[in-house]
Amino acid sequence: MKVDILKQFSIFMPNRPGALSGLLRLLTEKEVNILGVASEVRDDSGVVRLAVSPDAEVSAILSSGGFSSVETNVLAVEVNNKPGGFSRIAKALADGKINITTVYGSSAAGAAGAGEVSRIFIAVENVPKARALLESLEVPTR
Fold first, then answer.
1. CA–CA separation, 55 vs 140, rounded Å?
2. How does DSSP assign 59-91, residue by residue?
3. What pairs with residue 117 in β-bridges?
4. Domain-wise residue ranges, the chain
5. Beta bridge mates, 11
6. 76: closest CA among 33, 42, 115?
7. φ/ψ (deg, to 5) at 128
8. In the prediction, which pLDDT does 117 show?
């Protein structure tokens, strides 16, 4: 199973029109490629989580733009886009006593659907152990 380690930034944002647009404009100007995104909103504030390549200098960009953020590592796991793939990953981590703290993902399912690759972004408490465990999983052939 293909597993990469990426940077994840949890960015604290106001919950108002244009806030996300301003963040994305800043990152676009600095040519930061966003590989994954998730958000949570509560009342008047929210958190946007961005997964970016590990060599991106996003922390300095965010600080210079006035954004408060927390940087962590996140696993990017590629899995066949069919039922049960994510379940196998979650079970393997649970069996390995690894806690998942954040999860989000994407799928590029076109007309063909099954057989294409999905990417799941998983923040865990022990990145090296989780990566080794997931890399050892066999990829199902069906």
1. 31
2. HHHHHHTT-EEEEEEEEEEEEESSTTHHHHHHH
3. 80
4. 7-72, 74-135
5. 48, 69
6. 33
7. -60, -45
8. 83
CA–CA distances in Å: residue 107 to residues 58, 97, 127, 141: 25, 27, 23, 18
Q: Which two tokens stand for residue 29?
A: 């100007």
pTM over 0.90: no
Amino acid at position 72, single letter: T
**Token pair in block for residue 92:** 């393997």
Residues 62 and 9 sit within 8 Å (Cβ to Cβ): yes
DSSP 3-15: EEEEEEEEEEEES
CB 23 within 8 A of CB 12: no
Q: What span, in angstroms and rounded, lies between the C-alpha atoms of 84 and 87?
A: 5
Query: What's the CATH fold of domain 7-72?
Result: VC0802-like (3.30.2130)
Q: In sequence order, what are the residues at sequence separation of 6 or more whose Cβ sits closer than 8 angstroms to the Cβ of residue 52?
A: 6, 7, 8, 9, 32, 33, 34, 35, 58
pLDDT in tens, 63-105: 999 999 999 999 999 988 888 889 999 999 999 999 999 999 9
Place of tokens 């799941």: 120
- The class of domain 74-135 in CATH terms is alpha beta
